[in-house]
Amino acid sequence: MSTSGCRGIRPAGREPPLPAEVDTAERLADIARATVAVAQERGTHAVTLRAVAERLGRSTAFITHFVPSRAELMANALELARARWDDERRDELGGLVGVERLAALTRWMCTSSPEESVFRSLWIEVIADVRAGHDRAYDLLRTVTDATYESFLDGARAADRAEAARIADILYLYCRGYEVKSVEDPEGWPDERVQHSLELLLRVLVFDRADAAASA
Hints:
Blueprint: H1 24-42, H2 49-56, H3 60-66, H4 70-93, H5 98-109, H6 114-128, H7 135-159, H8 164-184, H9 191-215
Helix pairs in contact: 1-2, 1-4, 2-3, 4-6, 4-7, 5-7, 5-9, 6-8, 7-8, 8-9
């Protein structure tokens, strides 16, 4: 008996047709969240188009309609990370200015969470093998990190204008080093250990200088 006239029957292996109006941003966000979930559960090496498709209950063809390669999959996940970082940084810094804003930014960058660790793992993988087609993801990361450095520099000028660039360099490199260690050895570098050393660094490098300048 032919099933060609039977309603509700879809040949196996075929995707349901996309709605006429597809919210591409929403689809990309879904794919990004699924990418992060796969990385969190199985490690960044397990992030593939097929694995993300399985996570969403979709076909690989559905995923490649929006992100055509694994490199684009990584870039899309990091776009999600950038949006979250922007929101979190804005909430954390609020209306702070000067050295207080600089200190708050540094403390915020040197904290961790399970999802943050996943984003950092993706970030490290992109940097480690930019030749594997990760150019867009790498350029995205450079945009984020360059903007972060400028924020350090602005705050450092309130502590010591003459040495602002060196202060920004040190704090920036401290935070970037922490991000690598938080992925490489999270148990050896818990937030508590990092924050203790960070407070010492901020006192010597930022607050003492600002106090000395204010009393001069």
